Amino acid sequence: MAATPPNRLLLPLYWLIWLNAGRRSRKLLQFSEVEANGGKDLIRAAELTGDARLRQRFLAHARDEERHASMFRARGLTLLEHGVRQRPAFLDRFGSGERGLDELRVDEEEIEALLAFVHLSERAAAREFATYRTVLSHDPQTQALFQRILRDEESHMSYSLAELERIAPSTSRRALWKARLRRVWRSYLRLAMGLADVISTVLLLLQYFILIPPFAVAAKLSARRDKRGWQSRHEVRS
Description:
Elements: H1 5-9, H2 11-17, H3 21-48, H4 52-82, H5 111-135, H6 140-167, H7 172-225, H8 233-237
């Protein structure tokens, strides 16, 4: 799967994100956590479904997620050992990768909604991973890692859609549209929270550089007017 046109427009940004070894390590370790959590959700989904075929698909998918988590973690730790250790930076906010089931409550979802979310999540992950693969020519090992995982993501994307159409042939499109709208809403909430974080940081910086200096100057002027040493009570009152 090639990167889609919107992702191609962001290739310079993604290249910059993945250029730093320390940032690559942090993001791979984050992906490892997401894949591991997604595997747990899929195991729970397999326990809840009464469809034997779908249960096998969910369990196979969960095994893949656990394997991906191990692969991401191993590569992330290797880069952490050899790369520059840096604290999280602003660019870490971009290039989210797969979000698992987007914090979906598996126990409370209908099977159609669950399969729709799995399909859309895997499709988004495949798109992102294809973009990462494109910009990682400077790191062939990590590039090969995304290539291997990308094949699994495309397989997951295909099976989840096929199972959705098998189980709910008359409502599959509606389930996909509802899942899209929910993902858009959650993306908006994440964007709003990130924007609020940026705005609060800017406001604090403005307060620090605009409001605090006058008080600091006033405090220094007041300190200069005060006499040094001990003073009598009469001198202090005057």
